[in-house]
Amino acid sequence: MFHVKQPLDAPLAAAFPGGVYAVGGRVRDEEMEAVLGRELEYKDSDYVVVGLPLEEVRRRLEAIGEVDLVGASFAVFKVRAQGQMVDVALARRERSTGTGHRDFVVESGPDVTLEEDLGRRDFRMNMLARALDDGSLIDPYGGEADIRSRRIDIVAERCFVEDPLRMLRGAQFAARFGFSLTPRTLAAMHAAAPLVREVSPERVADELTKLLTRAAMPSVGFELLRETEVLAHIWPELAEGYGVEQNEWHAYDVWRHNLATLDAAHNDLTDRLAALLHDVGKPRTKTGPTFYRHEVVGEGLAREMLVRLRFPGHVVDDVAALVRHHMYQTGPELTPAAIRRFVRRVGPERLDRLFALRVADIVGSGLPKRGDHNERFAQRVRAVLAERPPLGVEDLAIGGHEMIALLIRCGRAAEGYRGGPEVGALLRYLLEQVLEEPARNTPAVLLGLAERALESAAPFGHSSLHGASAHQSMS
Predict the structure, then answer these.
(1) Which ranges of 347-420 does DSSP label H, i.e. alpha helix?
(2) Parallel, antiparallel, or unpaired for β 129-131 and 20-23?
(3) Percentages of the chain per state (helix, strand, coil), in multiples of 5
(4) How high is the pLDDT of residue 155?
(5) How far apart are CA 291 and CA 203, in angstroms?
(6) DSSP string across 123-174
(7) What number of other Cβ atoms are within 10 A of residue 438's Cβ?
(8) pLDDT above 90 as % of the chain
C-alpha cells in the first residue's frame, strides 16, 4: 500500500471520519509510483466527502481553515490551511443532456456514492480514490489493473461525447505516461472527433500545452490525434504534412519530420511549438523537390493557428518569428554587417531559441549531421553581439528631437513641426548606415548622413521622405 501523506490529510480525516477520500491525479500518480516505479508528478490534492449535506461539510471545513465555496453548482470548496490550498467537493453524479462539457445535469448530496462520483471521470486509471483514515485504495472500475498494463481505457463510449476535451487528454496521457489507448478508446475517439470543435479554444490550448511540455515524446500524442482525426478539426494545416515527401536531405515526410524535430526540441512551450510548426508551410509550397519560401507561408500559418487557439501573444510572436527565420544562412561569406542585420531581423532575445531550433531540425531530418557550420556561425554571432553594436533605432547616438530640428533647419518642415513619418524614415535610414558600419554611430556623423539624405530626397511637394523615391535614395 502506497500513500504519501499530505499536510491536510490528517485534519480532514479527523473532521470526516470514514467519509473523506483523496481523488484525482494524486491517487493515480501514487499508484504509478507503487506499481511502475514512476516518479510522482501531481501538484494538487483533491478530496471528496460522502454522506453529508453541503452546510455540514462547510461547518466542519471552517474548523480546519479558511473556506470559500467556489463551485456552488458543483459543491466545491477551496480550503486554505497550514500553508496549503486544496479542493474539497461533495460526491456528485452527472447526467448528460447532450454533447459538450456544459450539457449535463449535476447532482450532489449525501445520497451520492463514492462509486458514482468516480464513475463520472474520464478514464479508468483516474477512477481511483484513497481513504484518508486507513490509506486503502478504492478501485471499483479496475483502474489499478489499467495502470499495471500501461493502458488507457474508458468505461463507456459516451465518455468523449460528454466532454470532447477528453480526447486531447487521452493523447496527452499516452505521450506523458508511455501508455497505450485500448482499441475501444481509439474507436470512440475517432467517432467523436468532430465534437472537439465544440471545446473552447482556451481549453484546447491548455491541453496541448500539457502535451507539449509534460511529455518526453509529445509526438506520440500528436500521432494519436492525427490517427483518430481529432487533429483535422483543431490544426488541419499541420496534418497536411502527412505523406508529403521531401528531398534527399530528409529521411521522413513532412509530418514525421515535424514530429521528430518536436521531440528533439527543448522542453519549453515556445521552443516545442516552433519545432512542431517550423515546416507547416511546406505542403502548400511544394514544387517538385523544393518548398520555395515555405518559411514565409509557414509564418502566416503558424500565427493563424496559434491565434485561433488563443495562445498568449508573446508565444504567438516568438513562434511566428522562429518559423520565419529558421532557414537562415550560415556561410563564412557573411560579413559582420550581414550578421548584425540578421540579429536585427530575428531579435537578440530569440537567437538562442533559433539556434536550438536549427539543432532540433537537423536531428529531425533523420540523417547524420553534416559538419559544424551551424555551431561556427553561432559563435560568430555571439562574437558580434559581444561588441555590443547598435541594433535598433533606440541605440542611435541621436534621436527624434535632432531629426525634427534638422528638418526645420533644412526647410523640409515648418516652424512648430513636432514630428511625423519623415522622422521615422530618417532614423531607420541612419540605423541601416550604422548596421553597415557601427563606427558611424556618433552625433556628428549621423547628422551629416541625414543632411545628405535630405539633399538627395525629392521635394515634399512631389514625394515625402517616407515615400518611394525617398526610400530608394536612402536604401
Answers:
(1) 351-364, 373-386, 400-409
(2) antiparallel
(3) 50, 10, 35
(4) 95
(5) 34
(6) SGGG--EEETTT--EE-TT-HHHHHHTTEE--S-TTHHHH-THHHHHHHHHH
(7) 18
(8) 83
- pLDDT tens, residue by residue, 70-117: 866 778 999 999 888 999 999 998 766 555 555 567 888 899 999 999
CATH class in words for 9-149? alpha beta
Q: Give CA–CA dist 36/39, Å, rounded.
A: 9
User: How many CA atoms does the CB half-sphere of 353 hold within 13 Å?
Assistant: 25
Which residue, 36, 8, 41, is CA-closest to 24?
A: 41
CA 444 to mean position of chain CA atoms: 47
Set of cell numbers at residue 230: 481529432
Q: What is the DSSP letter of 56?
A: H
Burial status of residue 17 (CB atoms within 10 A of its CB: 0-12, 13-18, 19 or more): exposed
Residue with cell 443532456: 97
CA–CA distance, 416 with 434 (Å, rounded to integer)? 29
- Listing DSSP states for 285-324 in one string gives TEETTEETTHHHHHHHHHHHHHHHTT--HHHHHHHHHHHH
Give the model's confidence band at 467: pLDDT under 50 very low, under 70 low, under 90 confident, else very high: very low
**Residues 244, 254 contacting (CB under 8 angstroms):** yes
Are 91 and 48 in contact by the 8 Å Cβ rule? The answer is yes
The 10s digit of each residue's pLDDT in 190-201 is 999 999 999 999
CATH 1.10.3090.10 fits 165-336, yes or no: yes
- Which element (helix H / strand E) includes 115? helix 114-119
- Specify which residues 20 forms β-bridges with: 49
Report which DSSP code applies to 282: S
Residue listed under C-alpha cell 516552433: 274
Q: Which helix (H) or strand (E) holds 436?
A: helix 421-436
- Tell me which amino acid residue 176 is: R
d(CA 420, CA 424): 7
The letter for the amino acid at 340 is R
Q: Is 68 helix (H, G, I), strand (E, B) or coil?
A: strand
pTM (2 d.p.): 0.88
Question: Domain boundaries in the chain?
Answer: 9-149, 165-336, 393-473
Query: How many Cβ atoms sit within 10 Å of the Cβ of residue 256?
Result: 20
418 close to 405: Cβ distance less than 8 angstroms: no
Burial class (CB in 10 A: 0-12, 13-18, 19+), 393: middle
Residues comprising the chain, all counted? 475
Distance CA 275, CA 337 (A): 28
How many other CB atoms are found less than 10 A from the CB of residue 439? Answer: 7
Q: Is 435 left (phi over 0), alpha (psi -120 to 50) or beta?
A: alpha
What Å distances lie between residue 300 and 253, 343, 355, 429, CA to CA? 21, 21, 21, 27
SS3 330: coil
- One fold for 9-149 and 165-336: no
